[in-house]
Fold Ubiquinol-cytochrome c reductase iron-sulfur subunit.
Amino acid sequence: MSTEEDKYPVESDRRRFVKGVVGAAAIAGIGSTGAAAVNTATPPTGTGGGVIDFMGIERTGGPAPRGMPIIPVEIDDDGTISGRWPEVQEVEVEGQTEFIAEEELGGLTYSSQWYQYCGKQTSPALLPQAQQNNEFLSSPQSQYEWQGELGEDEALNLDHFDDYEEWGNEIGDDGVGKPAAATWRSDGLDGGDVLEVIVIRSTAIEEAAEEDEFLEAATEEGVFAFLNVCTHFCCIPGFKVSETADNIGAGDSVFCQCHQSVYDPFSIFEQSFISFPQPDDVEEPEGGGDDEEDGDGEEEEGGEDEEGGEEEGGGDEDGGGDEEEEGGEEGDDEVGEEGGGEGADEGDEEDAAQGGDDGAEGAEGAAGGGGEDDNGGESGL
Ligand code: FES
């Protein structure tokens, strides 16, 4: 059980909801006009999008332009581990009701937009108001042997990580941290709509949290999590699952087999990127969205938009190039192009990521192409 169980109580209804006025800065990102800062690959309509600061693990090598975003965790009284979903706010913009999920946490603004890349912006899981289960559920795709003892979609519990100080699996060093592959907010969803996550409990994070305001707020008991979607071309990397990674000295790093990007999960800092707007036609998952808490029953409504929106399922962690299929209408070969222009640091990745149903081709192009692209740009920081 968490020793700080009162700090971030997990609400039984799994979300916070505030209806009312939000600050001008928050509103600025809402609606299609908020896309002004987004590069030319950005679809013309949608909610949010633009330059976003986020906390992420560090990209230390390979073509990925930046790190992957942290998901703040909460642990309830019985040890169940969940990802914190930001406070949901309802705002009126140009006569339309919009929702944002955003709050101050650990000294910065935590937003659902942290995860709006690689086509995930079209996932109903990221609809601010969607009442999805925020528990981290054991992933059926997990390659960690120890997760074989868990039931399918069983919620991760702190008890599962009791041996975190010595756990090992012959890749990298023992005692670095115990990982689990999980899904988040993905009940009722499949394919590319699913949010794949890595959860790790580590003494390194326990110690770091003692001196870092954000980590103190976003981790508990040394448990932290990140969205496991490579910021290069959207593959699903792995942590301590790849002998290849071990062979190149990345056994204790997060390694993306597609083009060998490497991330240090224990180095977490503020970064920035250009998030995609959420298309207006993303529908709430079945069973969600009845927003009982504020009692008005309003739901986000959405017009059309031309973004393809369909995504397809991701690869696995050592699948040797079976990338997660994201991609979009323009997904096919733009993966090989320079993002061009401004946008710049993310350009090509975002092209590749634009949600659509031909993503598989794009992914293959990326994987099969030997990896290189011009994605030299670093993230905004
Ligand atoms: S390195 Fe991960 S998709 Fe290219």
Observations:
- The CA atoms of residues 192 and 311 lie 5 Å apart.
- The chain has one domain: 13-375.
- Residues 1-44, 288-381 have pLDDT under 50 and may be disordered.
